[in-house]
Batch of 2 targets.
Target 1
Amino acid sequence: MALSDSRSGVPEDWFIDPVRLGVPGVRTENSDGDPLSWQSDSLCAQTDPEAFFPEKGGSTRDAKKICSSCEVRTQCLQYALANDERFGIWGGLSERERRKLRKRAS
């Protein structure tokens, strides 16, 4: 380990950019050129994915609760609508809710 000052005991490379680490909430939109970079800031990426893909007739309440406080909810919903996602909870909406939203928009 290289030291910048042998008296301080602080390594030269002590700072690691949190954006490079993928720390949620510190990335600017598409800062790395990846249109899906928002996904690493999503709360669902940090929880059980099964809650977001319930079996037919299963509850969506837990997934929607998580989505309600997610800071990338809008990007998630936009992605789902643009890519015609047919399964799961995206941006806080079920497939049925996204379908209704598309119909109202057309």
Target 2
Amino acid sequence: MLRPDRDTPRVYLHRAPVDMRKQIDGLAILAKEVIQQDPTSGALFAFINARRNKLKLLVWERNGFIVWYKRLERDKFHWPRASCEAVVRLTGEQLNWLLDGYDVWRMKPHEVLHFSVFS
């Protein structure tokens, strides 16, 4: 399974929903203009859709960008809403908890889903 490294030092969550049709260039522009970080710095940038069931991660690795995409079949990602900031910073470990379905702020997970394409 491909996962962001738990030791990733800088993870930035873009709090506002993003159109998931955005690809590398569009996400890199958001990293630069909204998050105000260099998208080629090695930091990891996380973006969510309006329904909070799709998430994209953008990171620069040595000579190119990587985009990582996850879609939940049920439930929603727990995304910070209470903050007045446009960007929230997490650790790599907290990001992995978020991907596992935990509410990082309350430490409550999604229920495990047993999914079959052929049901």
